[in-house]
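Lab notebook, page 48
Experiment: co-folding of the full assembly
Goal: obtain a model of how the components sit together before planning crosslinking
Operator: M.T.
Materials (sequences as entered):
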Amino acid sequence: MSDHRQDVQQMREAFAVALAEADGSDQLEALRVRFLGKKGELTSALKSLGRLPAEERPEAGAAWNALRGEIERALESAKSRFRLLEAEAEEHRQSVDVTQPGCGRPYGAFHPVVQVMHDVVDIFVGLGFSVASGPEIEDDFHNFEALNIPPHHPARDMQDTFYLERKGLLLRTHTSPVQVRSMLRHGAPLRVVCPGKVYRRDSDPTHSPMFHQLEGLLVDEDVSVADIKGCLEVFVNEIFGRPLKARYRSSFFPFTEPSMEMDVECVACSGRDSSCRICKGTGWLEIMGLGMVHPNVLRSGRIDPERYNGFAWGMGLDRIAMLKYGLNDLRVLFQGDAAFLSSGGVL
Amino acid sequence: MLLSLRWLRELIDLPLDGSTLADRLTFTGTEVEGIGRPCEKLKGIVIARVTSLETHPSRSDLLLAHLDRGGRKALCVTAARNLSENDLVCYAPPGATLADGTVLGEREFAGVVSQGMVLSAEELGLPSVETEVGILVLPEGHEPGVDAVTSLGLDDEIFELSITPNRGDLLSVLGVAREVQALVPGSQIREFEVDLPRDEAVWPVGFKGITIADAGCPLYGLGFIDDITVAPSPLDARIRLALLGQRPISNIVDATNLTMLFLGQPLHAFDFDRLPEPEITVRGARQGEMIRTLDGKDRLLEEGDLLITSGGRPVGMAGVMGGENSEVHEGTVRVLMEAAWFDPVRVSRTSRRLGIASEAAYRFARVVDPARCLVSLNYVHSLLAGWGAGRPEARIQVSRQREWDLHEVTLTRKKLERYLLWDDLTEAETILYRLGFQAQSRQEDRLSFIVPSYRPDVRIEEDLIEEVARIRGYDDEIIPSRLPGRPKDRGDIGATFRLWRKLREAAMARGYMESVQYSFISPESIEAIGLGEDSEERLLLANPLSREQSVLRPLLLPGFIEALQANLRKGWRQALRLFECGDSYGGGDGLELFREKRRFGAIVFVGKERQVLYGTRRREDFFSVKADVDALFRACRVRPDYRPGKLPFGHAGQTAMIHVDGEAVGFLARLKPILEKELDLGGALYAFEFDLDVLLERDLPSFATEVPFPAVLRDVSFLAPRNVAVADVEAFIRSHGGAMLDKVELFDVYEGDSLPVGFRSLAFSLSYRHADRTLVDAEVEADHQVLREALESAGYRLR
Ligand SMILES: [Zn+2]
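Observation: model returned without errors.
Model output:
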């Protein structure tokens, strides 16, 4: 009675030992033959069941068949384990040095000024302004006269102009001509920003003969100085990514009245470093000119200055880019210098 | 403009220090760009009197000066020859510091110890006040022993003011004092006196008077000074000028300059005896008339220039510069002193055209105060009389063409509230009153003001609002910040910007670096790529900064090449991909010469490196760049066509024109290898450019609305003549492939020795598809066979 149980148990242990020693799928096949083959140990044991008394046969048969099932499952699972191991061994043979550089083209690079231009535009679009554009080759009317700068007005000394050999044409000295073009095209109320290249006859480390401005204009009924302050403070906080203190100084532009300049807290030192090179120790940075649109300019745009008024501002995008990205030479921006451009990486 | 704070304080009681005043000026619109202290380093210098002089016992070239420095004695050795006993001098004892920072000690000269030194003007830091070589001898009136810096007024603070073009009234000490009086509560301008001798002087016999023959000079005044001795002006005047960066010249010239600096009225002195005739006429110049100005240059005049003439001959360019013929010189005895009001536009036009940036022209162009004309003549007379330089005539001859209208401007409560969210008319009136604006008529909601003659910039109500606002300031407590309400519409970034954004992002994703090039380039850079011939279409700057930046770029390519060369010079060796989205100018069809087009341009330089990581197939070639162009267009939902093209700089066999909707919009080319060599690039350069306009506002892409039925694939390969374009072959296949032909894709091109000369092998993969059902092979077979026969009969040799 206990005989076959012992035999079954012995064979189970013998299989376990043999399986534990197996280290490859070919050895699993040998094990299968040894136990489950035609002449295998378990097959033989099953064959010898007939020799048992009839009443013991069912139980013994069940026990041997159960062991057969166990062995088959064990072999199957060992087989898949070895398959995985072997596949992995193959993967190791295909291993690469992950520290080698990738191939194909890396991502390119943003230009800081263009990036800032797009960022600034997004902020003002969020405030309800639309993008307007105008030509860089302008005429005297749009660049000066329509902006309340008559010929021979001393205000023309503020901007040294490039003229084209073709009479009457010049390179715009500011993006302000787009104010008038936009008013003529769209009328009031109006909210536009115009980013673009502008040109002045000036070249030194802080002046480039070509640079970028963004001009903004809002015309509506009952616009106050409070409105432009609010708009520009939102802008400054957005573009520099944190709230900055702002202050306003009275100034003069022929096309605005009153006119102001906006200073913001130094982005580099917040006024805490008296030797700061960015703000020259003043703690403040001049950031843009602004003001309420001069009635003559509204008239140039065929808008009734008694019904409507508005505000306008102009900022140097290059300067904002330089402040934002900590650049110190304006001229390197326009040389297509690969080392400079790629140094910024992804902004 | 430079302003002496000391001089300002002589005119106005100021209860604040220099830097507080500077802040206040800066915030109200007159930026103080800097505060200079020219004699800052001088320390320990005292006034001393030379009590006796003797020759050095062993060195005859040296003098021993015994000094009294206020009860204490000192001995100095000096080589100067201009000292006399009893002279007052500046004495630097041991331990004192000179203008250049030198600290003095005792020094021995051949057995005599010099205790410090007596100083020259240069050692005081003011070389221009010197009138003779040697020690600066002071006039009487300085107390020995007293600090020389204070006594001579060298402890001045010099404000560098940036005066905006609308505020010509601030171009004088008096003007700034008026402004300061409005800015600083409790400050008060002092009356200044003008003393004139009352007798003796008479108008020169025979003077025929002033004739004004041009409306550009409504007011012309002349003073007369007789018995002049031209000499240096007194030391304090010279010091004042020197501290303000002006060179003292002579009493006559210095007096006119000081008067202008003080009152803002430019003056001009004519040597009466050198005038061609005893008369002055103001008239317009005749075309082609000439004058030699006192800087010795001959000036060609035009109609519209205002002239001062005498006996019909020009003796001065009104308000710009005097003539050499009537200039005051050492022997001048009689002077006619001019103070006038000249038309700002006329003066400005003349001075700009001739490039004469004189102090006078600068002020006249910014409008001088007509009310200051007489005062200025009196002031300059009193200065000269006080200096004993001559005998000024008390009478002044004035010729007046018109009176100035008083301007009246109204301020309303409504507009004040609209602009500043504040409507206190009473306070506004107080502010304006301090600025010199007198209220004329008062109603509940409006006030009218008379504009003072020195503020011609104030003409409309908004100007008054600015005056009030700038004095009150723009701080949050004064006027809050708020966002403007009621936008009419959402903000729209616009089609051009949207497109630009897509292109730049697509280009950067494909490894291109964004650049911004100058819009103006050198003519050489255009010629370098063979674009020299059609130069009449170039847009040239009339006043370029340099030849390198004198032509507006007709293409983006020349700028890119310059940038590439600069990169190579700096040692760049790798591949380089640059792009820019910017304008090109001109180069058009001749009708629109100044046509300005928004363009996208790029270059791909294959690099100078021989070794390329992971093998040479990573190198760029025409087709890798073409794939970039395709991708950029695809980002804009446009499918371009390419046609073989010809460009002056394009490789004869690798140049394509890019077409959209049948229109050529740009190019893709390799640079001519001969140019690559001439430009010393050391590698192939590909470039492409196209106009943005054609890409604007394209339709939305149409996606397949249903999953398509499976396709049946067939390949076809054949020999095709080398000169037949793949695009044409593909078009042929499409037109002969039947209704079910869906996609045609080239998958192999082979050219080689094994093929007949003039042929290449092309292999296309074709997919046939039916819109409504799955095709079976047999259905396709017939169509495919028709196609094969068509190819064969067209001369393609099937393989
Ligand atoms: Zn700082």
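Interpretation: The first helix of chain A runs from residue 2 to 21.
Next step: discuss with group before ordering constructs.
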